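Per reviewer request, we include the raw input and output of the structure prediction for the construct analysed in the revised manuscript.
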Amino acid sequence: MSTPSIQAVILGSARGIRRLDASQSLPVFLERITPDETALDWTLYAFDNAGVLDVTLVGGQQIQKIIDGHPSLNSRYHSQWQDEGEVSDIIIADLEDTTDCYFIRASTLFSSEALFDLGNQRADIAYGYYGQDPNV
């Protein structure tokens, strides 16, 4: 019996960083957080380290910069991103029938340890947060 795969969808259709020179505009998750790494690099590393290999990024504006910088990343273009927002990215992601799926906003940084903790929760829908539990 094979282990069901875990998918991840990076919701990246929010407005990015706009500059007067359009060539300098970019999705917020392509902003450098170190001289050599972007938020997207950290996200992909965390997923890879946690064994989540089926990752899809759904983006709108400036999607070509993502494709150019990460050609092996499964990317989908959300043409109506301005009108429909990030939640509709889930439909565009074209998910396969899997047991587990992570949905993460592209501008969120997290560690692979956070994914392990999230994956170990025993619930139909699990969520993570930083700080005090808002439900306590």
